[in-house]
Amino acid sequence: MSTLIRKLSSRKLWVAIAGVTAGIALIVSGNVSEGSVAVVSAVVAYMLAEGMIDAAAAKTAAETAETIASAAVEAAKAVGEKTAEN
Predict the structure, then answer these.
(1) Residue 22 C-alpha from the chain's centroid
(2) What is the pLDDT of residues 29-73, one digit of tens each?
(3) Rounded to the nearest 10 degrees, how much is the dihedral formed by the CA atoms of 7, 28, 44, 3?
(4) Upper half-sphere CA count for residue 48 (Cβ side, 13 Å)
(5) At what angle do helices 11-28 and 32-85 cross, to 10 degrees?
(6) For residues 30 and 46, what is the distance between their CA atoms, to the nearest angstrom?
(7) What's the predicted TM-score (pTM) here?
(8) DSSP track, 31-83
(9) Is a pLDDT exceeding 80 seen at residue 7?
């Protein structure tokens, strides 16, 4: 539910909806080619923007996972050194 609320409060979504609506209005008024370009442009721009956000989130997640893995390796080395001393 919170994801839906977050999406609905997105300015990118509302700009895309406005672009699609304007494109449909152009198509209905007889400007089919301009309306089609407006609709496709709005959808593609929204998809690119969301893709960039997803890529940034994936990069952050990968960096966090790498940090955790490095910490786990260091901890395992420390435990191994303690065990070897005893």
Answers:
(1) 25
(2) 999 999 999 999 999 999 999 899 889 889 998 989 999 988 888
(3) 10
(4) 6
(5) 160
(6) 25
(7) 0.65
(8) -HHHHHHHHHHHHHHHHHHHHHHHHHHHHHHHHHHHHHHHHHHHHHHHHHHHH
(9) no
